[in-house]
Structure formats: C-alpha cells, structure tokens
C-alpha cells in the first residue's frame, strides 16, 4: 500500500514538471521590448497559427504574457506558470499530440497623455488594430512539434520575421483619400495623431465647380478604401467559394457585382449628387474610436465633428452646415451614427442606425449591467448557466460572453486586446488609477462593477440619454432617429433596440417621429430592406440611405436644396 502511494505521489510530482516550455529569442536589431507575447498552437497547417485564433468554437490555442521593458538580448521562456491561455487556460493541459507552433510579439508604444498618465499601448500602423497583421510586429515561422505531457520538453523559436508595411490606397477620379493631424488628439495623446477619410465625389463634380454639396457620413469599422464602389465588372476568374455564413456559393462575385452596380447608379442621371465619406479613425485600443469623446480614448467626437468634417467640406465644396449632413452605418457604425446625432444634435440632420452595438445598457447584448451581478452567468442558487454571445438565425449558440472575454484577456491585459468588449470598456469607462480603463466587470469571474456601470449610463447609454435630455434637445432630435435591426441579430443587439423603441414611442413634447424596424429572422447587418435577403441588403447601405435621406431631408427655408440636384 505504501509503495502504491509513493508511486502515485511520484507520478504527480513528475507530471507537474513534465510539460512543454517555449524559449523565445528576439532579433538583434531590437533593444527593449514592450508588448504582448503570444504563443500560438494549432493542430493543423491549413494556415499559419496566428490566422486561426478567434473566440468561437473553431479556434486554435493561444497563450499570452506581457513583456514590459524586456531586454531583447535576453530570451523569454513561456510556460504554464507565466502565461494564460484560451480556450485551454494552461500549457500543462494541452493534450499530447502533434502541433504547429508559432510565436508573435504584438508591440506596444509609450504614450504620455495630457491627463498625466503614461501608458503602453499598440499604435495602429495602417492595419486597423489587428495583432496578427500589424506592420512591425515580429513573429516566428511555424514549426511542427510533438507534445508529450509525460515528458518535459523545451521548444526553441526565433522571432526573425517582421510584418511589412501596408500600402495606402491611391486616389482615383471618384475616390480621394484624406488624412489630417488632429490638434485635439495630438494634445491628448502627447504625440502626433491622425484621422482621415475616403471621399467619394459625385458625378459631375469637376463640371460643376460652383456647386456645394451635402455630406453623407458612413460610419463603420476601419475601411481600407471606400467600400462597395467598383468601376469595373466582377472578376470572371473569382473562385466559386462556398460562404459558410450565408450558405451560398460565389459570394465574392456577388459582392463585386453589387459594388459595380452601385457605381453605375452613382454615376447615373437620377442618383442624388452628394459627397459620401467613410471615416478612418483607429485609436490605440481598436480599429475605430466610436466617434465620441472619452476619458481613455480622447476627444475623437470633437476631432471628427469639428476638425475632420469641416476640412473635408472645405476641400471638396461641402455645404458645411449641420442641416446638410447625415450619418449612417451598421454595427459599430450603427451605434456611432446614432451617438453623434445624440451628442451633436446641431451638427447632423438625421441618422440611420442599422444593427447598432448596444444602445441601451439594460440589454448590453445579453447582460443588464445595472441589475445583473455577473456578466457570464445567469443568477441561480445552484446552477451556472452561461450567457450566450453569438448565435445563428436559428438560435444555435457558438460563443458565450465568458468565451469572448477570456479570449480578450489572453490577447491583452489592461483592456489592450483590440477586441470588442475591450473597446466598449475603453470608450465607456472612466480612467483607472493606473491610467487604463476601469473594468466594467472582472475579466476572469464576470462580476460586474456597478459604480462603473453608473458612469456608463450617464455618458454612453444612448437610450437613457435620449430620454433624460429630451426636454432640452427633443426638438432637435425629432424626426432624425431611424433604427433597423434583425430580430435574430447574431449578437443579440435587437434586445437593446426593443428597449429603445419602447422609450422613443413614449416621448412627448415633441414626439420622436422617427422609425424603428425589424427584419424577420434577419441576422447581423440587416438595414431595413424587406425586399432582399440579408446577404444582399448588407451591401447596399449607400444606395439605400442616401436617396432616402435626400427625399426626407428637413432643410431651412433659405437653404440651397436645388443647385446640387443636377
């Protein structure tokens, strides 16, 4: 009996040391390194491991740790004691087998902010805050290894690859590209900061040099160029690839055909002659800033509204008045379209918010941040039921709120993952004592901080703000708010829209006189078109909302609403 007990204890002792460790060496050209060091492990070589990480059920494994002023001449050991993983939390728990391994360093830079805080964050380098694509990040080539958890092993990798710079888009006859240094953001961040836009010029712009145009402002994620506009027919050689989300073949060709069709409409005789822009405003936390002022992000709302937009209007003969501007967008862009209308009621004359990020924090996806105690689990005395975060149109769940947040925690501590929950936190939260955003909930446990939730409510809960400020701004908002969402939105965003609609319909003195509409069984990015499937309507934001706004536009009696309608 004693012998069996001794052997069992010996096995346990041996197993605690019998695990894989990875020794990482850095280029001699580097001196000191700040950033998130990511170990990527995949059970297949369909693509590089760095391209196979997500929060869903089909993700491969990632393990992360911070480098803080690390001497590049010194190698770094990644093991089960100093790293955190997703979806497997510890390297010690990786099943034995054959794998492909890669290591990447997502670099941070030092920011000395106006508020006195010094923080280390990833600067966007033209890729839209994507850790696996960011130019300048260093990584190793994938290697195949065998992990045997009964045998202690050491894997050595060298970060001898660098992600190259991204070429900026070139101007064409119709599309121009603008980038300006923002005085407001430069002052806040303590270093030069830029915002920009892709500008689509109306047909006849050069032939009508005296005409000034209204401005259509499309909000969305980081656009590499003006999206959905193509002057040539679809590429005949495109592969007939199956699209898993929409369950159809050849979706890439459909996308190109829609873009070409829009070009023909835009240049045709009946389409409204306006300037259309897609804004580029990545920040150190995400691929865009959410277009509002924030303690952590800085005065992006003011920078876009009072610096970038007037600059564009001056450069391209915009009318330059609030009645001649409107906003539209989907998802993040849907929230932004509504947010800027709410925050700047005199500067915009209407918003079309499709599938917006949560506009009522009583339904922050599937979390009520004011009443729930925990963001990950439904309240119960005995049973822990996880809250869902992503579903398909049939309600099949692929991701939970906990999944998304643990995935982000591995990619970056201190709200630095560059992912969805972290940017919400970075925009909406007050600054913590360490200079980083205060957590709305504990990333590991899901326990909600209701003091932070109160700050969110007063500053960024759009439904609450509309109701609170309606006695003052109601006449400015009346008839300008239009919201669209599929009733099977993949991220449960329709739940917040239901609550917002209820509040809007109850407003008086004046009534809101807007529009809220839902797509039956429609998923994310549905934008109000009942005549087309979701995979088509999501490609038609420009052609849908620009004519709609022009037709319904409310302009002052003295406004010029005819010279640009040639």
TrEMBL record:
Q: Which InterPro entries match?
A: AB_hydrolase_fold, Mycobacterial_A85_antigen
Please provide the record's keywords in A-Z order. Answer: Signal
Presence of keyword Signal: yes
Signal peptide extent? 1-18
Q: Which PANTHER family match?
A: ENTEROCHELIN ESTERASE-RELATED, IRON(III) ENTEROBACTIN ESTERASE
**Protein name listed in UniProt:** Esterase
Species assigned in the record: Lacihabitans lacunae
Lineage start:
Bacteria, Pseudomonadati, Bacteroidota, Cytophagia, Cytophagales
């Amino acid at each position: 009996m004693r012998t069996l007990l001794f052997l069992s204890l010996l096995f346990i002792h041996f197993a605690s040391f019998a695990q894989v460790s990875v020794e990482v060496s850095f280029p001699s050209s580097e001196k000191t390194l700040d950033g998130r060091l990511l170990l990527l492990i995949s059970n297949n070589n369909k693509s590089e491991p760095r391209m196979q990480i997500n929060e869903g059920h089909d993700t491969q494994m990632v393990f992360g740790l911070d480098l803080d002023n690390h001497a590049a001449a010194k190698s770094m050991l990644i093991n089960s004691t100093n790293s955190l993983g997703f979806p497997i939390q510890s390297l010690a728990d990786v099943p034995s087998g054959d794998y492909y391994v890669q290591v990447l360093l997502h670099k941070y830079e030092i920011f000395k902010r106006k508020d006195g805080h010094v923080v280390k964050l990833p600067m966007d380098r033209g890729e839209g805050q994507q850790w696996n694509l960011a130019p300048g990040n260093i990584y190793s080539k994938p290697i195949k290894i065998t992990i045997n958890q009964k045998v202690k092993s050491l894997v050595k990798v060298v970060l001898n690859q660098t992600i190259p710079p991204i070429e900026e888009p070139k101007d064409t006859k119709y599309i121009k590209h603008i980038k300006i240094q923002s005085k407001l953001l430069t002052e806040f961040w303590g270093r030069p900061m830029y915002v920009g836009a892709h500008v689509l010029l109306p047909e006849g712009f050069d032939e009508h040099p005296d005409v000034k145009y209204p401005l259509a402002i499309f909000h969305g994620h980081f656009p590499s160029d003006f999206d959905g506009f193509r002057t040539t027919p679809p590429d005949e050689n495109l592969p007939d690839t199956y699209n898993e989300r929409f369950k159809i073949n050849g979706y890439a060709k459909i996308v190109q055909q829609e873009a070409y069709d829009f070009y023909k409409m835009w240049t045709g005789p009946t389409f409204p002659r306006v300037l259309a822009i897609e804004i580029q405003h990545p920040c150190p936390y995400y691929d865009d800033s959410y277009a509002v002022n924030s303690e952590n992000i800085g005065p992006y709302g003011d920078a876009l509204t009072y610096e970038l937009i007037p600059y564009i209007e001056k450069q391209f003969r915009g009318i330059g008045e609030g009645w001649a501007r409107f906003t539209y967008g989907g998802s993040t862009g849907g929230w932004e379209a509504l947010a800027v209308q709410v925050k700047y009621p005199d500067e915009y004359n209407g918003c079309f918010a499709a599938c917006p990020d949560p506009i009522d924090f009583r339904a922050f996806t599937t979390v009520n941040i004011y009443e729930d105690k925990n963001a990950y689990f439904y309240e119960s005395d005995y049973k822990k039921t996880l809250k869902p975060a992503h579903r398909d149109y049939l309600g099949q769940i692929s991701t939970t709120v906990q999944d998304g947040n643990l995935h982000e925690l591995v990619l970056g501590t201190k709200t630095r993952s560059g992912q969805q929950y972290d940017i919400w936190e970075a925009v909406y939260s007050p600054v913590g004592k360490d200079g980083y955003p205060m957590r709305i909930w504990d990333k590991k446990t899901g326990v909600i901080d209701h003091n932070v939730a109160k700050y969110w409510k007063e500053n960024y809960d759009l439904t609450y703000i509309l109701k609170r400020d309606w006695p003052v701004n109601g006449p400015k908002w009346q008839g300008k708010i239009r919201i669209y969402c599929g009733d099977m939105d993949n991220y449960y965003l329709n739940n917040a829209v239901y609550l917002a609609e209820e509040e809007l319909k109850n407003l008086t003195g004046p009534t809101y006189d807007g529009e809220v509409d839902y797509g039956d069984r429609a998923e994310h990015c549905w934008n109000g078109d009942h005549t087309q499937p979701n995979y088509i309507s999501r490609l038609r934001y420009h052609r849908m909302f620009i004519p709609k706004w022009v037709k319904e536009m409310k302009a002052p009696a003295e406004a010029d609403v005819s010279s640009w309608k040639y």
